[in-house]
Design goal:
The chain is α/β, with parallel strands linked by helices. The chain is about 30% helix and about 20% strand. Helix 1 (about 60-75) links the parallel strand 3 (about 45-50) and strand 4 (about 80-85). Helix 2 (about 90-100) crosses helix 3 (about 115-125) and helix 6 (about 215-225) runs parallel beside helix 7 (about 240-250). The longest helix is centred in the N-terminal third of the chain and has 15 residues, at about 60-75.
């Protein structure tokens, strides 16, 4: 899972990363012992840096992360908050992080899946700096000054699938996704499972763009789905406006992702899933500033969800087309998830093989290793 995946900004030849200043579940292996000598990593840092793979106003992933960084600025007014947009998932990311460290940052947030290798490289070079990465997983020993974090994204996506399953008239849902990584596969599967829980014959048509943010490919994917009779479209893309606007213009319904984009789909918006990063970012910063990061829950692969009660990925507001019956079904499902999972068995794959037996509730780590589409998803995954 540490293979670098080209993000939205990789299409740019130069890094548009002008630095700007704005002023519990532990699934990792055992953390390595702290480096000898020196202060605790991150302790009393005068600045914190945030690296984004795309623009801060993408109506999606990067906008939500940027908003979280600005919440940190409010909670810690004494800190210099440094941000960099459009940073590719390659060695440029390490260069940008090192530039932030030169400006005083001893706490760095690398917010894209493919930033992990660069984050670990920087952490190894700077044992006094806390480097946390958003969404990927560290395999093997976790460095004393590093960690990953994420919410269980598929839980609110499952709930949104219920709304989509109740709303569709054609029985065809569309899913525009970037890459077949664990997060996107989990989301596509959970969306279909949620929809099938209220509409057993519904199908989800999954289309990959092979990019986190390519508006041309997104528009083409949405158009093809609409031609097939899909009347509800959702997505796992960093920038979400293109798909949402295309769906709204066609008179179809949309389910959002990463951020509340209901303002650009006033008629077709059903609901969605969005990040509320501020509280989690702030607690990571607070832990690092206190000098207690090493050995903490964040010095690991930290994952939270409805079963822990503090998932930073939350359900978006409802649109005008969602009736009270559907809202009650969603509420009941959310309550069940506090002690269960969208992947509670039995779960079958596209070929009908039972992947999760009846009576089994897989843990977070197991779900993040799912590499198959469930029954009802139309589309194929690359063969490994």
């Amino acid at each position: 899972m540490r293979t670098i995946i080209a993000g939205a900004a990789l299409t740019a030849l130069a890094v548009l990363s002008t630095l700007t200043t704005a002023c519990s579940a532990n699934t990792a292996g055992t953390a390595a012992p702290a480096a000898p000598g020196g202060a605790a990593p991150g302790k009393d840092s005068p600045a914190v840096g945030f690296v984004f793979v795309g623009p801060k106003d993408d109506y999606g992933y990067n906008q939500a992360a940027y908003q979280g960084s600005q919440e940190v600025a409010k909670v810690f007014p004494q800190l210099k908050v440094i941000t960099a947009e459009n940073v590719p998932e390659d060695d440029n990311a390490a260069r940008v992080m090192n530039s932030m460290i030169a400006k005083g940052a001893r706490i760095i947030f690398a917010t894209s899946y493919g930033h992990l290798d660069a984050a670990l490289k920087v952490a190894a070079e700077h044992p006094d700096v806390v480097v946390v990465q958003q969404g990927n997983l560290i395999t093997g020993t976790t460095p004393p000054n590093a960690g990953t974090f994420f919410g269980t994204v598929y839980e609110p996506v499952y709930l949104a699938g219920i709304a989509a399953g109740k709303a569709t008239k054609t029985g065809k849902l569309g899913y525009v996704y970037a890459f077949p990584i664990s997060q996107t596969i989990d989301n596509i599967d959970a969306f279909e499972l949620g929809a099938r829980s209220v509409n057993p014959t519904v199908k989800t048509y999954a289309v990959s763009t092979s990019s986190w943010c390519d508006p041309a490919k997104q528009a083409e994917a949405a158009a093809n789905l609409l031609k097939q009779g899909v009347d509800v479209i959702t997505q796992h893309q960093d920038c979400t406006a293109t798909v949402i606007k295309a769906t709204e213009a066609a008179g179809a319904m949309t389910v959002g992702y990463h951020a509340d984009a209901s303002g650009i789909a006033p008629k077709g918006w059903l609901t969605g899933s969005q990040w509320n990063w501020g509280p989690l970012y702030s607690d990571i910063v607070r832990t690092a500033l206190a000098g207690t990061f090493t050995g903490s829950k964040y010095n690991a692969n930290f994952r939270v969800g409805y079963r822990t009660g503090d998932n930073p990925f939350v359900q978006s507001p409802y649109g005008p087309g969602v009736d009270e019956e559907t809202k009650k079904l969603v509420d009941a499902a959310k309550e069940r998830l506090r002690n269960s999972s969208p992947f509670a068995g039995p779960v079958r794959d596209q070929e009908g093989k039972v992947r999760v037996p009846e009576g089994t509730v897989p843990d977070y780590e197991t779900i993040e290793k799912i590499d198959y589409f469930v029954e009802g998803v139309v589309g194929s995954l690359p063969k490994s």
